[in-house]
Amino acid sequence: MVTRADRKRIGIMTAIALMLCVTAVGSPVSVLQAEEQTVSQVSEEPGQYTVPDGWSEDTSAETETGKIYRYSEKLEEEASSSVTCSYMTTNYMTTEYEQLRDMLTNDIVYSRVNAQISTNAAYTDNKDYLYILTADDASLDYREIFYYVVGDLKCFCAAVKEYRSEADEARSAQRSTPEEVGKQIAAGFTWK
Fold first, then answer.
1. What is the secondary structure of 21-73 as a DSSP string?
2. How many domains does the chain have?
3. Nearest to residue 175, comparing CAs of 19, 15, 36?
4. What is the DSSP letter of 115?
5. What is the pLDDT of residues 34-85, one digit of tens each?
6. Within a 10 A sphere around the Cβ of 102, how many other Cβ atoms?
7. In the chain, which ranges are continuous DSSP H helix?
8. pLDDT tens across 115-146, in order?
9. What is the span of the domain harbouring residue 67?
10. Residue 133's domain is classified under what CATH number?
């Protein structure tokens, strides 16, 4: 049963960054690295991640809680795929990831009632827990994928908004899709 305190925490978490966690399925496995040259390494408290070539920070869309990246050639287009990288503090240690996972998973279930939800678990290259959650509502022209890296009393999220047409274009051009870029950012993330 969800208590009032749980609902409050869910609301706060949603308002801060819409960072989502997933239900672990089976044994964690290593995330595959995308085969792209990196152009920039972003280092800020409390961690560091690398943004691949062909993606740039959209400073006009930056939020208080995170940085937004888009295909370099589509920076001016508001309705284009994006990866939002953000941090937040939590009340959970790494060993309590199940409670954090459950709370955030419930948030996605209740906030995206028409979406098909799928989950997965892995480790980052640095052996931190990585939860992957996909919310796919067939009535929309995009889907959302959340890569969530767990730390003690903190988390990092690479939230991907992937437009289906852009993903198809990327596959045709044999370049990484937004989903693959989000996976690469999260897999290479390191805590300071």
1. -----SS-EEPPPP---EEEEEEETTEEEEEETTEEE-GGG--SSEEEEEEGG
2. 1
3. 36
4. S
5. 333 444 666 666 899 999 999 999 988 767 778 999 999 998 888 899 999 9
6. 13
7. 4-17, 97-111, 164-172, 178-187
8. 999 888 899 999 999 999 999 999 999 999 99
9. 4-191
10. 3.40.1000.10
